[in-house]
Amino acid sequence: MSLAVMETSPRSAATDPEDVLRAWQELDVPDGWRAEIIDPGKISLLSPPSNPHNFIVELLQEALFPARPAGTGLYQTVGLWIASIGRLFIPDLTVVPRSVIRTTKAPTAAEHALVVVEVTSRDNADDDRVKKLAGYARGMVPLYLLVDAWDPSGPSVTLYENPRSGGYDLAHRVPFGRPITLPAPFDVEIDTTEFPPGADW
Predict the structure, then answer these.
(1) Which domain of life is it from (predicted)?
(2) Is residue 155 part of a domain?
(3) Who contacts 188 (Cβ-Cβ below 8 Å, separation ≥6)?
């Protein structure tokens, strides 16, 4: 995915996050693109992902769908708002109670998510590794699954657990090809053998 950034106001530490959120809500985003608030005062537009990226997301969706808790849905386009830091991310996949999606206006408060999944792209991998990692922790998302085909140490999958004080207490990393297990309420082992490494994209 390529990334374009638009400033919603002159760069200022005083930019009101609620103003940026309102600008996000009023955007008319082209089909397949995503608009996120990754940095303060800016709305980032992300182009549609590559086919290998979509392939990994589809495999993850297939694994998570039957394992999701009763009364929850698996979504690809839900905006998660982290009010404490004025950030809004749209993960590649997230599991959220259906009642929240049915009864609230977009975006959704991040703390409602049971798990978020991000699959890195070459152009914005650091956002998923650093900014979104910290953001999801601040948003008290209990599980963050990061699929990183561009990991400098080799293609990997990392599960972050137990958010606290802007970070996660636990991180379990496996290379592509080895399984990784999501704990309760999912209790599912995810097979990564078919995940294509970034060198193949």
Answers:
(1) Bacteria
(2) yes
(3) 63, 64, 66, 67, 181, 182
Residue 32 lies in a domain: no
pLDDT tens digits, 75-115: 999 999 999 999 999 999 999 999 999 998 889 999 999 99
Instruction: Give the whole-angstrom CA distance, residue 174 versus residue 155.
Output: 9
What six digits make up the tokens of 146? 């990061």
**Domain enclosing residue 120, as ranges:** 50-200
* Residue-wise pLDDT tens digits, 55-65: 999 999 999 99
Q: Are 144 and 168 in contact (CB under 8 A)?
A: yes
Residue 161, amino acid: E
User: In sequence order, what E strands does 47-155 have?
Assistant: 72-75, 80-82, 87-89, 93-97, 108-109, 115-119, 143-148
Q: Is the dihedral of CA 9, 7, 136, 99 positive or negative?
A: positive
Are the CB atoms for 139 and 115 separated by under 8 Å? no
